[in-house]
Structure formats: C-alpha cells, structure tokens
Design brief:
Helix content is 14%, strand content 59%. By secondary structure, it is mainly beta.
C-alpha cells in the first residue's frame, strides 16, 4: 500500500512540476463541489465534497487527458435500526470526514462552440480522518478506502461544468460488517 501511495505522489508531483506556470490557474478553474447519494434497505449515504485538481493533456493525443485532484468529504450514513447495520433500537448516524484523491484518465468525445463532453474512469483513494457514531467517536471503520469511478463531464458556455458519475468502493466501510459502498455523484464547477 505504501508503494502505491508513493507512486501516486510521484505521478502527481511530476505532472505538477511539468506545468507549474499553469497550476494556479488550473486549480482555480477546476474548483468544484458536489454530492454523492446512495440508499439501500439497510442504510442511506449522503456525502458533500469540495475540491480541485489538475488536467494534463497529451500533445500527441490532444483528446486524451489524465486528472489528479484532492477533495474534502463530509459523509453522513443513516443506519436503519431494522437493517443489517442497525446499532440499536432507533436509527444511528455515522458521520465521517475524509480526504480523497481521484486519479482519472479521460477522453474528449466532442467539442463545439461553447460545449464539450468528456468521459473518464479511474481509481479514487480515500483516507477517513474522523468518524463519529451518534456524536461519539467511532473507530470500527476501515480508514483507507479505494474505489473506482466512471463518469462524464459536460462543459457549457466555456465556464461551467457538470459532472455525473458512478463510484464503487469494494472494501467495507465498517470493520465489523461487510458494508461496501457505491454512489451516484453529481457535481458542478468552473
């Protein structure tokens, strides 16, 4: 796992160093916020995030790009009392704060005057730094999560971007139960 994190850090550093003059502009331009939602019979997950990142376009393949970013996430899980993850007689609320690093590869499907559509896919690495169950610290979670995301970005009027994606995290969030997560994501940005 350390080798994987080191490889990611080296990749992001090399991309950042190769385009330092463009870094500040891209971080401002790629600022985004959004939300993830998911619901089963056992729980409901809502996540709000803000973040930014950097796009690197290849000169030889101008429609192909890689994206590296960082997000801050605030999640709330409603664990239904009659569900598989029920903690007591009433619904329980698990809240987490985390940092996530999405690394995507994408392709620009089309670009016209004022509009463009990109498709992308790639892993997301998440580190949960804080967790509470019903306002009390809760440590029975797996703090390092890895997920896979596939989605699309529609840019319109040269300024706004809307992203729609689906993410799947196969590793269980809770260490006591098998609770893999998935989410439908909507975000907007510049």
């Amino acid at each position: 796992m350390r080798k994987l994190l080191l490889s990611i850090a080296i990749l992001l550093s090399s991309l950042t160093l190769s385009a330092q003059a463009d870094l500040g502009r891209q971080l401002w331009r790629n600022f985004n916020f959004g939300w993830d939602v998911y619901r089963t019979q056992d729980y409901r997950w809502r996540n709000i995030f803000i973040g930014s990142g950097y796009y690197y376009h290849f000169e030889t393949f101008p429609k192909v790009y890689v994206y590296g970013g960082i997000n801050i996430n605030w999640s709330k899980y409603t664990l239904y009392s009659n569900g598989r993850y029920g903690m007591d007689e009433s619904n329980s609320y698990l809240r987490t704060t985390s940092f996530s690093v999405p690394l995507y590869a994408g392709y620009q499907v089309f670009k016209t005057s004022g509009f463009s559509l990109n498709l992308y896919t790639g892993p997301t690495f998440e580190m949960i730094v804080k967790s509470k169950l019903d306002r009390y610290p809760y440590d029975k979670i797996n703090r390092f999560q890895t997920g896979w995301t596939t989605g699309s970005i529609l840019q319109f009027l040269y300024l706004f971007r809307a992203r729609v994606a689906y993410s799947y995290y196969p590793m269980s969030l809770l260490s006591d139960y098998n609770m893999p997560r998935s989410a439908f994501t909507v975000s907007i940005g510049f």
